[in-house]
Amino acid sequence: MSDKPKNEARDDEQSEFIPPIDFSSIVFPFYTQALMKLGLLENPQSNQLEENLEYARRLIDLLDLLKDRTKGNLQPEEENFLEAVLSQLKMHYLNKTEAIKL
């Protein structure tokens, strides 16, 4: 149980960002997690860069799977967003694994 009065707890809940219900809300958590595992974005819990390329690859593969399973069912902007996210993550992954030099 919280020590906060009920109305104060309610204020905290109201100030918390709630993302819209759309396709980007499905993609964005995988994207940000992959950026963290690529060591490009600080982990908000530790405030440190962490690298786990195997985990990053798995997240990229999941987004690829989502792309394959939703093919033909997305709006053009949703498809473009997913493609841009995947392209960016794959480029960073290849750079990190030294498969390519940027």
Beta-strand fraction estimate: under 5%
Poorly predicted residue ranges: none
Number of discrete domains: 1
Radius of gyration: 17 Å
Estimated helix fraction: 55-70%
Can you count the beta strands?
0
Described by the principal axes of the CA atoms, the overall outline is: flat
N- to C-terminal separation? 51 Å
What summary fits the major beta sheet? none
Describe this structure in words.
With 102 residues, the chain is mainly α. The model has no long low-confidence stretch (mean pLDDT 88). Helix 2 packs parallel to helix 4 and helix 3 runs antiparallel to helix 4. It has one domain. The chain is built from 4 helices and no strands.
Which terms summarize this structure?
102 residues, mainly alpha, 4 helices
Offer a quick outline of the entry:
It contains 4 helices and no strands.
